[in-house]
Design brief:
With 278 residues, the protein is mainly alpha-helical. The protein has one domain: MetI-like fold, CATH 1.10.3720.10. The protein contains eleven helices and no strands. Helix 3 packs antiparallel against helix 4 and helix 8 runs parallel beside helix 9. The radius of gyration is 27 Å and the shape is flat.
């Protein structure tokens, strides 16, 4: 008896859903944003090596720099933590000083006229002169580097916060006056929420620059930290270490910048404005 085997028709795969397509597009977009800078930097790097004719201790190959980060991890990490500590404390103090002065200047304009010229002057003192004075006053320890990072970073926070505190919708302020809301509540519920995007914009500058300023301070005065590693590597003609530290500092600064942007993008400013900062 003959038996006939019936093959079931092939089932076509289901087309990707809109959510899947959107996820793939987001992954590709993120990957391209990461890959394009890396490819362009590496391309320019190898072109510089090929056409400059400079020795390896001036322009090392990317593989040499990568070897420093992978083979000398404990040494680099030890000094990285010193730099991060100074940068983090200086960054926090820059925000405390900047936001505090902005609130003071906005609440009492007399202090704005008295103290703003001094703030501008301090902000524009050359770091070399500032570091020399601080070393004579308190030595070359942590707090000298923290002071330099703080002075370098407080001014953008001060200026942006003042603009944010002054950018409140006058209609909202009139509503608060009609309701006889106390000045303190007006500040907390209206002025401060309106100034948050301005403060975050300042963090893009202050946060990303805190690492670079800390490294520069260590390069001038310190016996530890990434800046010290640069000095040590230059004395030993270790261009690979110099580039490794520079790459590490640049990546950290960029990561802080992107983190601030992500936080800012997740906050619905338009909804805050419509609700009077609530």
């Amino acid at each position: 008896m003959n038996t006939t085997t019936v093959t079931p028709p092939a089932v076509a795969p289901a087309p990707p859903t809109a959510a899947t397509r959107n996820l793939l597009l987001r992954v590709l977009k993120i990957a391209s944003r990461i890959a394009f800078p890396i490819v362009s930097i590496l391309g320019l790097w190898y072109l510089a090596i090929a056409f400059s004719g400079l020795p390896e201790f001036v322009i090392p190959r990317p593989t040499q720099v990568l070897a420093v980060l992978t083979q000398e991890t404990s040494f680099v990490t030890q000094h990285l933590m010193v730099t991060l500590r100074a940068a983090a404390i200086g960054f926090l103090l820059a925000n405390v000083v900047g936001i505090g002065l902005a609130v003071l200047f906005t609440s009492l304009p007399m202090f704005n006229r008295l103290l703003m010229p001094a703030a501008i002057t301090i902000r524009n003192v050359p770091y070399v002169a500032l570091a020399s004075v601080l070393v004579l006053a308190v030595g070359d320890g942590l707090w000298t580097k923290v002071a330099i990072v703080t002075i370098a970073g407080f001014f953008p926070v001060l200026v942006n916060t003042m603009r944010g505190l002054a950018a409140v919708d006058t209609v909202v302020l009139d509503r608060m006056r009609i309701l006889d809301v106390s000045p303190w509540k007006v500040f907390l519920q209206v002025r401060l929420p309106y100034s948050v995007p301005y403060i975050l914009a300042a963090q893009e500058i202050t946060g990303s620059a805190s690492i670079i300023v800390a490294v520069a301070a260590e390069w001038m005065i310190s016996s530890e930290g990434l800046g010290y590693v640069i000095n040590r590597a230059m004395a030993q003609y270790r261009g690979d270490q110099v580039y490794a530290v520079a790459l590490l500092a640049a990546v950290l600064s960029y990561a802080i910048y992107m983190l601030v942007q992500v936080i800012g993008a997740r906050i619905n400013w338009s909804e805050r404005s419509r609700n009077g900062g609530k």
